[in-house]
Amino acid sequence: MRVLRILFSGLLIVVLLATGAFFGAREVFLWWASRSVVSAVQELARTQTKGTFAQQCQRSVGSDVFGTVEPTYQVRFLSNTEYALEVVCGEQAKEPILITRKTLPLFVSKVPGSSGILPDAALSGIRLTVFAEQFALIKTFIGYIPEFFVRERAVVLSEGLVLADTDAVELGVGPATSCEGYGFMCCDSQTQMGAGESLSGAQNCPSTCFSSCITRPVLLSFTTAPFINPQTRSLQIASGGTVSFHYVADAGKSSDLSAVIYFGDGQRAQAQGSAGSFEHVYTCATRSCTYTAKIDLTDNWGVTSLPGKLDTVAITVSGGV
Q: What is the rounded distance in angstroms from the CA atom of residue 72 to the CA atom of residue 84?
């Protein structure tokens, strides 16, 4: 019994030390990160005071521009961990002059949503967090992370005054940047579907920037026998004739795929898997009938394929009249 008590006491001490080390490291990393961002803002202010880039801005805009071009300065994030100190000349926000690039300390990242700091704005800031990737990995295994483990701190510039390590809720405005700079993902419109929070106006993908992307099933081929005309994706048969349909698809990261084909005459059929075949008999009671066969793909998460030119076939059936 005494040995068990000693072992339990030793284990408890180890747990307490590990917990204290975790919370201590968390505070140190966040302090280090906030100080590095503050130093970057101060470096930008010194550069602005020197006026080093005024002439370079004037040359980049053009000598025929009336008046003097006043450069503006910004701290713009390129990802959740990398940011750049830049000079913007006039309205050329998409082509800033790079002063230097910096990276946040190890284990620290910017909370998605903000894009950086504008020193000339009335209110501009970012929010930092620590161990975000590690927590995300743990959450995929156990499905939950206690809230008190997560720590966030904001670095805000308010009327020229830097407020570091603050709990400020409002971050104000930030520079225009890429989807990755906001901490979001640029989803491919053909193979992915956006999920979660969306963001409009990102420089590289103004309409497909989301907090996460879900892989869509992709139709690779949809063919028939008799063969279709590849240019018009159409074929002709006589009434009572049979058309064989065959599809091949890429399920992406999904483990299963279902395909539903609508034959165009009110009937349909379903198959499972990334490849399959269907047969259907078409009839026509008039001189000519035209049907449009269409295939839809859905993976086991309920994500559907994107409509396209390959997923339909026009079938003209000549009747006996």
A: 14
Indicate whether 100 and 155 sit together in one domain.
Answer: yes
Cβ neighbours of residue 227 closer than 8 Å, sequence gap 6 or more: 235
Considering the entire predicted model, what is its pTM? 0.75
Instruction: Name the residue among 216, 198, 215 with its Cα closest to residue 207.
Output: 198
Conformation bin of residue 196: beta by default, left when phi > 0, alpha when psi is -120 to 50: left
In a domain, 272, yes or no: yes
**Both 146 and 203 in a single domain?**
no
Neighbour-count burial for 131-167, b at 16+ CB within 10 Å, e otherwise: bbeeeeeeeeeeeeeeeeeeeebbbbbbeeebbbeee
The size of the chain, in residues, is: 321
Q: How far apart are CA 306 and CA 108, in angstroms?
A: 37
Q: How many other CB atoms are there within 10 angstroms of residue 243's CB atom?
A: 21
Q: Per-residue pLDDT tens, the chain, 321 aa: give them.
A: 665 666 655 565 555 556 667 778 888 888 899 899 999 998 988 888 777 777 777 676 665 544 566 788 899 999 999 999 998 887 654 578 889 999 999 899 999 999 999 988 888 999 999 988 877 787 777 777 778 778 888 898 887 777 766 666 788 899 989 999 999 999 987 788 888 888 888 888 888 899 888 888 989 999 999 999 988 999 999 999 999 999 999 887 777 899 999 999 999 999 998 899 999 999 998 999 999 999 999 988 888 888 888 899 999 999 865
Do both 32 and 159 map to the same domain? yes
Domain count, the chain: 3
Asked if 268 and 262 count as a contact pair (C-beta separation under 8 A), the reply is: yes
